[in-house]
Amino acid sequence: MLRILLFLGTNIAILAVLSVTMRLLGVDDMLAQQGGGLNLNALLIMSAVIGFTGSFISLFASKWMAKRSMGVKIIEQPVSSTDRWLLDTVARLAREAGIEMPEVGIFPSASPNAFATGWNKNDALVAVSMGLLQSMNADEIEAVLGHEISHVANGDMVTLTLIQGVVNTFVVFFSRIIGHFVDRVIFNTREGYGPAYWITSLAAQFILGILAMMIVAWFSRWREFRADAGAAKLTGKHKMIAALQRLGQAQPEPLPDEMAAFGIAGGGLHELFASHPPLEKRIQALQEAVL
């Protein structure tokens, strides 16, 4: 529950900060028409600016945020056989997937997990936890790396950013319309906007944000099935199934919210809000897949 609330709070906070910024710049005042009118074209443009700005800021800062928040140590010069094997394996998988070599790193977590991030598929980061290296064999780790490389090759970081921007846009758009309606029709405000507009808009933004989370989570779950299939093609179906079965035994802790959607394992309080499908469903999909 805490993970969901933190994710929702972060998204709403970004929208709120941008909304206040637009208010201070006087953009909202331009929409406060005399009488009951509302400039929907101008509102949609403002909503898109707010909705996409936060998403793209997160995208372009994703590698930096990952390194700082997860304590990722980038392997620049291998100092062990494990470092060398990781670099060689990622390089081979990236070449087979048709992308440039991503940065490779290790982060200090006892839980077996991994993630990929970056603003485009030719400038990505793939990181694995110490727990994953210690609890899985070479074939299973290779499959996990193939899963993350598939995320990168599929352009999932950019696609998720665009979808988040679209849903953010409509959250802002419809919350302003609801606030306008309450302020004009129920409270009969005729000039500018009254307190009812701001209170109702923020409340609607919160509620619509929850619904938007379901859309983004659904897409995130769909990406996981596709990344699993990509890993199976790169490394072999049996390796990917074995890796997922190992994760099921380990029950890895979730990644921080900004990284969770790009990890190998995750979940949520309810399947509607989960960033990852249940492991048993992912294994079943691979077993039934014709690759």
Task: Describe this entry's structure for a reader.
The N terminus is likely disordered. The protein contains twelve helices and four strands, in the order H-H-H-H-E-H-E-E-E-H-H-H-H-H-H-H. The protein has a four-stranded mixed sheet, sandwiched between helices. Helix 3 runs antiparallel to helix 8. By secondary structure, it is of the alpha+beta class.
Q: pLDDT under 50 segments (min length 5)?
A: 1-8
Beta-strand percent range: 5-15%
Q: Give the distance, in angstroms, between the N- and C-terminal Cα atoms.
A: 37 Å
The percentage helix is: 55-70%
> What would you call the shape?
elongated
Task: Please tell me the overall pLDDT.
Answer: 83
Summarize the biggest pleated sheet.
Answer: 4 strands, mixed
Strand order of the largest sheet: 1-2-4-3
What's the total helix number? 12
Number of strands: 4
Give the topology string: H per helix, E per strand: HHHHEHEEEHHHHHHH
- Structural class, from secondary structure content? alpha+beta
Features:
291 residues, alpha+beta, 4-stranded mixed sheet, 4 strands, elongated, disordered N terminus
Structure in a nutshell:
With 291 residues, the protein is of the alpha+beta class.
Summarize the SSE layout with pairings:
Blueprint: H1 2-24, H2 27-31, H3 40-60, H4 62-70, E1 73-74, H5 81-97, E2 103-107, E3 114-118, E4 124-129, H6 130-135, H7 138-153, H8 156-186, H9 195-235, H10 237-250, H11 257-260, H12 279-288
Parallel strand pairs: 2-4
Antiparallel strand pairs: 1-2, 3-4
